[in-house]
């Protein structure tokens, strides 16, 4: 039972890690003016694009923070199951 729980937690941790990297990439693309590509097809005023970009960046940052917190909670549970305090520190 504990091994199944540990495996499930490792899987969840891995999925969150992947999602964090993906969200960071999208955030980087927003900061790298990728929004201009969208604007060339959407034909929106620059002010609207700026608002949309800021809102999307804020949302991505919030999601990244939430997933980092989830990983910390998973790490705490893994420490509890494993009895190892160092394996999951600051990843």
Structural summary, described in words:
This protein is mainly α and 91 residues long. It has one domain. It is built from 3 helices and no strands. It is rod-shaped, with a radius of gyration of 18 Å.
Q: Which helices and strands, and how do they pair?
A:
Elements: H1 2-31, H2 35-42, H3 46-82
Helix pairs in contact: 1-3
Largest sheet: none
Order of helices and strands: HHH
- Strand content bin: under 5%
Spans where pLDDT lies below 50 across 5 or more residues: none
Structural class: mainly alpha
In short:
By secondary structure, the protein is mainly α. The chain has helices spanning 2-31, 35-42, 46-82.
Keywords:
91 residues; mainly alpha; rod-shaped; 3 helices
């Amino acid at each position: 039972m504990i091994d199944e729980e540990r495996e499930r937690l490792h899987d969840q941790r891995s999925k969150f890690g992947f999602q964090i990297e993906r969200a960071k990439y999208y955030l980087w693309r927003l900061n790298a003016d990728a929004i201009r590509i969208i604007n060339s097809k959407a034909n929106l005023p620059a002010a609207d694009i700026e608002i949309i970009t800021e809102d999307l960046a804020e949302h991505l940052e919030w999601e990244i923070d939430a997933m980092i917190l989830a990983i910390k909670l998973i790490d705490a549970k893994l420490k509890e199951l494993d009895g190892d305090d160092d394996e999951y520190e600051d990843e």
